[in-house]
Amino acid sequence: MALIKSVRGFTPQIGENCYLADNATIIGDVIMGNDCSVWFNTVLRGDVNSIRIGNRVNIQDGTVLHTLYEKSVVEIGDDVSIGHNVTLHGACIKDNALVGMGSTLLDHAVVGEGAIVAAGALVLANTIIEPHTLWGGVPAKFIKKVDPEQSKELNKKIANGYLMYSSWFKEEDKNK
């Protein structure tokens, strides 16, 4: 069972039909929507400021979400995929965006609707990634515009895939 821990009077609130891996850690001021999944070795640290997560969000293995005390929060929209081993520190991810594996996003960065952050990218503090664009590199830079329908289709496919994967684990848990 995932570790869900209260701190400073805040207890995480988890929406309906969410999957939390056995060793996921969710702490403090975290509010998560419905149909989300938080995968193995993932840490959502809402101890120093708030983390808000929309519906149908998948936060993949080894990812860490954290904030700055009284300065930055994490906001994630609907139908977002956060890849494996991402560090998301006080950033905002809009609907239908994709954050690639191993990326780091720093305080007050904003990833626009339908945007894609390439694997391994470093998105510096205060960077604004326009909707429907692809950014990558260290530090991350604009690479190209992304067709809005292709972006939405890709991100919905990944989000739906993670809903299916999480159902496998829920079935296993019911059969125990």
Q: What is the topology?
A:
Layout: E1 3-5, E2 13-14, E3 19-20, E4 25-32, E5 37-38, E6 43-53, E7 58-59, E8 64-66, E9 74-76, E10 81-82, E11 87-89, E12 92-93, E13 98-99, E14 104-105, E15 110-111, E16 116-117, E17 122-123, E18 128-129, E19 133-136, E20 141-145, H1 148-174
Parallel strand pairs: 1-4, 2-4, 3-5, 4-6, 5-7, 6-8, 6-9, 7-10, 8-11, 9-12, 10-13, 11-14, 12-15, 13-16, 14-17, 15-18, 16-19
Antiparallel strand pairs: 19-20
Unreliable runs: none
- Strand and helix order: EEEEEEEEEEEEEEEEEEEEH
Distance between the termini: 13 Å
Mean pLDDT: 94
What features would you highlight for this structure?
176 residues, alpha/beta, 8-stranded mixed sheet, 1 helix, 15% helix, globular
How would you portray this structure in words?
- The longest helix has 27 residues.
- The chain starts with a strand and ends with a helix.
- Strands 1, 2, 4, 6, 8, 9, 11, 12, 14, 15, 17 and 18 form a twelve-stranded parallel β-sheet that branches.
- The chain is 15% helix and 36% strand.
- A hairpin with a 4-residue loop joins strand 19 and strand 20.
- It is of the alpha/beta class and 176 residues long.
- The protein is built from one helix and 20 strands.
